[in-house]
Amino acid sequence: MNDQIGARLAPNMVFQNLIGGQDRPASDGMMLDVFSPVDGSLLAQIAAGTAQDIDEAVAAARAAFDGAWGRLTATERGRLLMKLSLAVEAHADELAILESRDNGKPLRQSRADAIALARYFEFYGSAADKLHGDVIPYLNTHFIGVERVPHGVTGHIVPWNYPMQILGRSVGAALAAGNATVVKPAEDASLTILRVAGLAREVGFPDGALNIVTGLGRTAGAALAAHPGIDFISFTGSPETGTAVQTAAAKNHVGVTLELGGKSAQVVFDDADLKRALPTLVNAIIQNGGQTCSAGSRLLIQRGIFQDVVDAVAERFGKLRAGHPEREPDLGPMINQAQQRRVLGYLERGRNEGLTVIGEGAVAPDAPEGGYYVTPAFLAPVPHESILSQEEVFGPVLVATPFDGEAEAIRLANGTPFGLAAGVWTKDAMRSTRVARSMRAGQVFVNCYGAGGGIELPFGGFGRSGHGREKGFEGLVEFTTTKTLVIAHG
Ligand code: NAD
Asked: Are residues 230 and 378 in the same domain?
């Protein structure tokens, strides 16, 4: 590999937990090695957080909530978030390089994530003092006020695919609403979150408002989900882990938002503007190597144009290159070997079902040895019942299925257990509205598609994609509850 690349990061990076404003090793001193998916090399070490660390982080958050952090006004909290937004923006290049080495995503995507993170802090910082309650008409002798109050201490379990963006949308909103927070980043991508937590300390967040405990899901994550001192949990990750987190939270009778997986369809009618649609149809699955919960992983194409669209998509797939994230490839490596094997395993199962790959990219010849690269694959026609139409691959694998009429398109689009996002492509305005409104999905795009995008736009799922909403003002409301004051005055 070219040795200038990556040279801008300090060698042998070691990160500890951040608890109560202090860098703290794991209670038993254990560390986890962090390997870069780019070339499999050792990149850093992070603390292997324990249940005791979670306990201490929750106690630090509680002390902040009851103390310096809880005493701030909404405006003061908002200003701190705005300062953090500026600090993130000023460090966007550093964060981008760190993310690309840690997570493998192309540098431009990492930079976009850092800018999105800054924007989340700006959005929620500026919203902090605009969240207010209600006055309810009741008996003439009583005044009724409904106040919006923070839950208290919130737990945030973050996946590896968009660490910065998911930190921004959940922790940004939680802090703006006045909660004190404990974050458990994914073991495969903790570094940018730790760096941002350092920036929060530098801009003056009170100790304990933002605590980070890194480590394994089954230890640190499970301890956070089950902790009786946590008042609300935001979980983003796989449906299986979501079940475990919600079950643990139920024992403490606390609420959760679950942002889980997807198998989102893009429906292409025969009057669609294909020139406009084609780049988006491909990018919606290739972005972040397909490791995007709202990736457009299924194409439903009206039969009359099926072959033409499939040929055009296959041609574009043929030009895709997976490679070193700092050489501006179409996609970087998968996050780790397990994910690489998962994607290859799905393709193998597709071949065993008799499916054909009709468009295939390549791994760039100069992609570093030891990285977890896979070639993007496009399969068509793929029956709706196929495992590749029904299960989330979470990789650069796109399938296409033909449909005849509008009713069938809606049935197929809604025909998986997931319901995260959907796209509709047609020039017929009435049909686009009709079909879009029939989609069982948290976000529906017409003649466009925004996998993962939209800081201002509420986001979340139906069914196996989860429940609760993040992003936008609705995401801020999720991190509050109401308190009704009944005041007799006559
Ligand atoms: P994952 O469920 O394996 O891990 C997510 C987080 O949960 C990690 O921090 C992990 O350490 C932790 N964890 C693991 N086991 C745990 C346990 N028993 N208790 C508590 N925490 C535990 O998911 P992943 O592989 O990191 O992410 C991929 C999945 O996330 C995909 O299914 C994807 O669709 C989904 N995702 C959804 C969204 C969304 O907004 N809907 C966004 C990104 C990713």
From this structure: no
Nearest CA to ligand 1 atom 40: 259
Q: Is 293 a catalytic residue?
A: yes
Residue 451: the pLDDT is 64
Instruction: Read off the CATH number of the domain in which 221 is found.
Output: 3.40.605.10
- The confidence band for 12, taking pLDDT boundaries of 50, 70 and 90, is confident
255-259 and 466-467: which strand pairing?
Answer: antiparallel
Comparing C-alpha atoms, which of 185, 249, 223 is closest to residue 55? 223
Q: Tell me if 418 CB under 6 Å of ligand 1.
A: no
> Is 49 in the same domain as 63?
yes
Sorted by sequence, the CB contacts under 8 Å of residue 407 that are 6+ apart come out as none
Asked whether residue 247 falls in the same domain as residue 179, the answer is yes
Do 273 and 392 have their domain in common? yes
State the residue for tokens 């449909």: 403
Query: Is the predicted pLDDT of residue 7 greater than 70, yes or no?
Result: no
CA triple 357-439-359, angle to 5 deg? 10
- Statement to judge: residues 275 and 363 lie in one domain: yes
Q: What is d(CA 34, CA 18) in angstroms, rounded to the nearest whole number?
A: 18
Assess whether pLDDT exceeds 80 at residue 246. Answer: yes
Helices (H), 319-469: 337-352, 387-390, 406-413, 429-438
Rounded CA gap, 314 and 377, in Å?
9
* Same domain membership, residue 117 and residue 97: yes
Nearest Cα to Cα of residue 34 among 65, 7, 63, 13: 13
Relative to beta strand 31-35, strand 42-47 is antiparallel
For residue 489, tell me if it sits in a domain. no
- Within a domain: residue 461? no
Give pLDDT tens digits for 334-356. Answer: 999 999 999 999 999 999 999 99
Per-residue model confidence (pLDDT) at position 467: 98
- Domain with 290 in it: 264-454
Q: How confident is the model at residue 452 (pLDDT cuts 50, 70, 90)?
A: low
pLDDT of the residue at 1: 35
Q: Among 109, 165, 236, 251, which is best to mutate for testing ligand 1, by the most ligand atoms less than 8 A from CB?
A: 236
Say if pTM beats, i.e. exceeds, 0.90. Answer: yes
Please write the tens of the pLDDT for every residue from 108-161.
Answer: 999 999 999 999 999 999 999 999 999 999 999 999 999 999 999 999 999 999
Residue 186 is classified by DSSP as B
State yes or no: is 259 an active-site residue. Answer: yes
